[in-house]
Write a structure and sequence with these properties.
16 helices, 47% helix, binds zinc ion, 4-stranded parallel sheet, single chain, alpha/beta
């Protein structure tokens, strides 16, 4: 399999001569609800993991939570709660949403605030090597000391300085030196350290967790394109300086970003679509197929009409699974299966080309529809359809996440409310009230008016 490595700017053959693949993916800062951009990144790395597992590897997948930083502190202050409570609440919803998106859970979700010991160990070592220094604001990495700083983003220190909007800080030796540790400010959460109370800088946590749980040199490090600089650049320089082992990660995989029209989806622009709102409107399969219909390195434009059209595509696939029986024609069915499976694997081997893999699934659908119409038993083909879909995390067998529930709810509620008004017209109030009571118990509220009965789902 070939994967594009941001570090070398080329597709590279994965020649991992071993059973285990160590994969670290940068996670979220749980200061608010997660948006569909986060869903895109997690689905991409979920499919990479599923495909590697399909190829027989055991993937050790670690994903962190940045549960303390400026955004966490500001948001907690606004809500008048502790950063720990804020983190716990948002992490719980995030993990729920990941499950609803049918993402396999990572083996471990370490949190920055629980890894302070390892973080301090790395910073102390960097200071002792002369690669970091302590001033009143905290501890900083001395970027000038490392010759290959900038190798991931391919920028020289001079480019970085002229391209950055960082104001000159009199206390830093070089304006590009970045914080490993931040000294305590009043009212902020803090931990004891050899440099007084404070908290970790952003980048150091990922080095600490990756090294602690996966080793000095890992196979795949992932995240969104926007993390290349400064986050991943700084992770590399501090990790390789600490361990003395190069490379910190063999392959760097970055997904393209989700856009709203021509803008990046971001909280500061105010064009956020939350994962939970998308999950309310569309099925998991349709959302995943929409995300995977575009190559993971390209930007993806959020488009609800396109997600809607994926519902229809998914239904086409599930409908075919209902066909049963027919005459056995081993030659024809195995020929079709072999060709389509090969094409699917070729597509996925080619830098995880999911749009081509999905096209192959629909080619298989076309073949099987034809064979079925000729009266041939397609059970083996249906089995392959399920297995290939599963690699993309599309669950064709589970009808509950298959169909958008609103689509059924609307006509169903119409039937129920009509029956109930008939009962009321016939003065059978007891039964009419029972319908209302039972619906209320499952979270649906009925409101009678002169125009008729309206219904709505009760918000918790
Ligand atoms: Zn990270």
């Amino acid at each position: 399999m070939k994967l594009y490595n941001t570090l070398t700017r080329q597709e590279e053959e994965l020649d991992f001569n071993k059973q285990d693949i160590n994969m670290y993916v940068c996670g979220v800062t749980p200061y608010s609800s997660s948006h569909i951009g986060h869903a895109m990144s997690t689905v991409v790395f979920d499919v990479l993991r599923r495909y590697l597992e399909f190829k027989g590897f055991k993937v050790n997948h670690i994903q962190n939570f940045t549960d303390v930083d400026d955004k966490m502190i500001q948001a907690a202050k606004k809500l008048d709660m502790s950063t720990a409570d804020l983190a716990n609440n948002n992490i719980e919803s995030f993990l729920n949403e990941m499950a609803l998106l049918n993402n396999l859970p990572a083996q471990l979700y370490p949190r920055a605030t629980e890894e302070i010991e390892k973080i301090i160990e790395i910073i102390e070592s960097l200071i002792s090597k002369g690669l970091a220094y302590h001033n009143k604001d905290g501890v900083y990495f001395r970027v000038e000391k490392v010759l290959d700083y900038g190798k991931l983003s391919r920028r020289t220190l001079k480019d970085m300085i002229s391209g950055s909007r960082i104001e000159i800080d009199q206390n830093k030796e070089n304006s590009m030196d970045f914080a490993l540790w931040k000294s305590e400010k009043p009212g902020e959460p803090s931990w004891d350290s050899p440099w007084g109370k404070g908290r970790p800088g952003w980048h150091i946590e990922c080095s600490a967790m990756s090294i602690k749980y996966l080793g000095n040199s890992i196979d795949i490090h992932g995240g969104g394109l926007d993390l290349i600089f400064p986050h991943h650049e700084n992770e590399i320089v501090q990790s390789e300086s600490f361990t003395g082992e190069i490379p910190f990660s063999k392959i760097w995989v970055h997904n393209g970003l989700l856009r709203m029209g021509s803008d990046k989806m971001s909280k500061s622009v105010g064009n956020i679509v939350l994962i939970r709102d998308v999950l309310d409107k569309f099925s998991t399969n349709a959302i995943r197929m929409f995300i995977l219909s575009s190559h993971y390195r390209s930007p993806l434009e959020y488009n609800e009409d396109q997600i809607k059209s994926k519902e229809i595509s998914i239904k086409k696939l599930t409908k075919l699974l209902e066909n049963t029986g027919g005459k056995v024609d081993f030659d024809q069915i195995s020929y079709v299966c072999q060709i389509r499976q090969e094409q699917f694997i070729n597509a996925m081997d080619d830098d995880l080309n999911t749009p081509r893999a999905i096209a192959t699934i629909f080619d298989l659908h076309k073949d099987l529809t034809r064979l079925s119409s000729e009266g041939i038993d397609i059970a083996a083909g249906q089995d392959l359809l399920n297995r290939l879909s599963d690699i993309l995390g599309l669950d064709l067998k589970n009808k509950n996440i298959e169909y958008n529930q609103d689509e059924f709810l609307e006509p169903l509620m119409k039937i129920l409310t009509n029956i109930r008004s008939e009962l009321r017209n016939k003065k059978e109030f007891e039964l009419a009230d029972k319908i209302r009571f039972d619906l209320y118990n499952i979270g649906i509220n009925l409101e009678d008016s002169l125009e008729g009965t309206n219904w709505n789902i009760i918000d918790n």
